[in-house]
């Protein structure tokens, strides 16, 4: 498993960008002239020199003593980073049923996972959930949506549609806590089913089968997945085979958005009528593990 290669690259990009950003802000203070040439300034007076020396000495003194709280914060961050990676690996390597039991017994771990997840996502240049939210905003607000593996329920918080938010733990009364292979939603009741980076369990096909059950004929199935999970060059699944399996279930691929560096977004539509195909072969989706930063 190694999609973190992508994640790590994005993080490195983020770090570089931050360094470059720091440089820009320093230059901004030094050189207010638009010509790019620093304006000449008069030599400092002896009084100003003394004051500068005093300032430097006091800031040096401050710099020598690290604040104990910052050290503790760093240690806490390292521990919670490790905890996040452990939970992430757990979610990618067990069934949805086991994940549901695990998080039901330890609901606090859900926060640990999502704090780490948000940190990882902050390094992505574009968040797939935002692309999906914008897509929904461009379509009918009367559509009913099911957000499978909703996380912090960003979709329901940002659109006017009626949204069924589903996840392993419910910290908000609007979120349905269940294993998304078996939701309480009625058959043929939703217009859009979303999986935004949530096909994590080893039994992921059963999640898509559940979406098929709850979707109305003609309904939309949106799947955003980490790019490296669907990149045969890095040990990922063949995206053609992935789409073929979903087609056999009774969907047509309308479009595929592959322009983002970190994820691919598939837009399928459920056929009005389709033959039931038994024993569909699903490609293995490798887990997306994050490297330690
Ligand atoms: C990587 S997070 C993405 C969250 C959200 N979709 C987003 O894009 O911000 C995946 C989410 O899927 C949830 N999930 C994974 N397997 C699940 C299952 N079997 N049933 C319900 N939720 C599941 C996880 O708990 C997690 O909140």
TrEMBL record:
Pfam families noted in UniProt: Methyltransf_8
Question: What are the boundaries of the region Disordered?
Answer: 1-72
Would you name any one GO CC term? nucleolus
Task: Write out the annotated subcellular location.
Answer: Nucleus, Nucleolus
GO biological process terms, semicolon-separated: chromatin organization; methylation; rRNA processing
UniProt function note: Probable methyltransferase required to silence rDNA.
Q: Which domain of life is it from?
A: Eukaryota
The protein's name is Ribosomal RNA-processing protein 8
Q: Which residues form a coiled coil?
A: none
What Enzyme Commission number(s) appear in the record? Answer: 2.1.1.-
Could you tell me the keywords of this UniProt record? Chromatin regulator, Methyltransferase, Nucleus, Repressor, rRNA processing, S-adenosyl-L-methionine, Transcription, Transcription regulation, Transferase
An example molecular function term from Gene Ontology annotations: methyltransferase activity
- Which InterPro entries would you find in this protein's record? RRP8, RRP8_N, SAM-dependent_MTases_sf
Q: Where is the composition biased (Basic residues)?
A: 14-30
Q: Which family does it belong to?
A: Belongs to the methyltransferase superfamily. RRP8 family.
């Amino acid at each position: 498993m190694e999609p973190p290669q992508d994640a790590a690259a994005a993080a490195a990009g983020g770090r570089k960008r931050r360094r470059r950003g720091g440089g820009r802000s320093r230059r901004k203070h030094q050189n207010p002239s638009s010509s790019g040439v620093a304006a000449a300034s008069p030599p400092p007076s002896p009084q100003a020199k003394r004051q500068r020396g005093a300032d430097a000495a006091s800031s040096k003194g401050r710099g020598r003593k690290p604040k104990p709280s910052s050290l503790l914060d760093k240690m806490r961050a390292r521990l919670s980073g490790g905890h996040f990676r452990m939970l992430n690996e757990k979610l990618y390597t067990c069934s949805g049923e086991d994940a549901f039991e695990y998080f039901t017994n330890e609901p606090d771990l859900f926060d640990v996972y999502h704090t780490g997840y948000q940190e990882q996502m902050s390094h992505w240049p574009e968040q797939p959930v935002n692309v999906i939210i914008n897509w929904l905003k461009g379509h009918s607000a009367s559509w009913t949506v099911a957000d499978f593996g909703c996380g912090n329920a960003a979709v329901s918080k940002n659109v006017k549609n009626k949204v069924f938010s589903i996840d392993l733990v419910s910290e908000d009364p609007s979120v349905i806590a269940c294993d998304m292979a078996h939701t309480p939603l009625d058959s043929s009741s939703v217009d859009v089913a979303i999986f935004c980076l949530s096909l994590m369990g080893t039994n992921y096909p059963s999640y898509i089968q559940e979406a098929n059950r709850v979707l109305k004929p003609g309904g939309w199935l949106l799947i955003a997945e980490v790019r490296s999970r669907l990149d045969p060059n890095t040990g990922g699944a063949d995206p053609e085979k992935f789409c073929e399996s979903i087609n056999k279930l009774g969907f047509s691929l309308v479009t595929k958005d592959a322009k983002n560096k970190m994820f691919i977004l598939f837009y399928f539509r459920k056929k009005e009528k389709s033959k039931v195909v038994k024993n569909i072969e699903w490609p293995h989706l490798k887990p997306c593990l994050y490297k330690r930063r």
